[in-house]
Amino acid sequence: MAIFFIGAVTSDTDEMLNIDILAQRIQVLKNTKLVMADCNLATETLRWLLSFCETEGIPIVIETVSVPKAFRLDKALPGKVLMMKPNKEELEVFGGDNNSFYSSAERIAWLHSKGVKYVWMSAFEDGSILSDGQKQTSIPATKVNVQDTTGAGDAAMAGWVWAYLQNLAPLTCVQYGHAAAAAVLETKGAIRSDLNISVLKSYLLP
């Protein structure tokens, strides 16, 4: 089972990880079960990736990263996206206007209209909301003894993707995302060295 992650961490890498580089790895991309990307990529790269994944029938999930970088995805849409994960501030980028007059529900509806199947909005310690275009469900966060927040968002995305690839329901995928984030939050640094399926499941809410 292959997952292809595409992201960048610095401005220089933003420019280097471009369409030409991805095109050179086209066979790797074609053989993956799912693509996980983030908005460190340039708008034109995100647009190319969305088109490629839709043509090849490969699901893509996208992490928005930050408010400034979420604008890149806003400009790259429309496109077929399995799931994207903004927080409330990043969500306000979408909808054609960053005026707070528009509610979160309206912005989420706009994302669905642009091809996003699931919108998973993080509310940090208050949990999150999952929208499938028909209803929005609030999911509480796991209560933990926070040691370090580094890497928790990435862990949440990884937990969701792992659960999705086990053919679990989207809402259950969010619960696994919360569990993965909780496991990392109780660790100093971004890596939980003892993380395995048993540890992950121990953080699931009953």
Question: What can you tell me about this protein's structure?
Answer:
With 206 residues, the chain is α/β, with parallel strands linked by helices. It has two domains: 1-133, UDP-N-acetylmuramoyl-L-alanine:D-glutamate ligase; 140-206, no CATH class. The protein has ten helices and seven strands. The chain has helices at 11-16, 19-23, 26-30, 43-56, 67-76, 88-91, 104-113, 152-165, 170-185, 197-202, and strands at residues 3-6, 34-38, 60-63, 81-85, 116-122, 128-131, 136-139. Strands 1-2-3-4-5-6-7 form a seven-stranded mixed beta sheet, sandwiched between helices. Helix 8 (152-165) packs antiparallel against helix 9 (170-185). The longest helix has 16 residues, at 170-185. The radius of gyration is 16 Å and the shape is globular. The mean pLDDT is 90.
List the domain count as a whole number: 2
| Portion of residues within helices | 40-55%
Q: Which structural category fits the helices and strands?
A: alpha/beta
Name the CATH superfamily classification of the largest domain.
Answer: Ribokinase
Structure summarized in a few sentences:
This protein is an alpha/beta fold. The chain contains ten helices and seven strands.
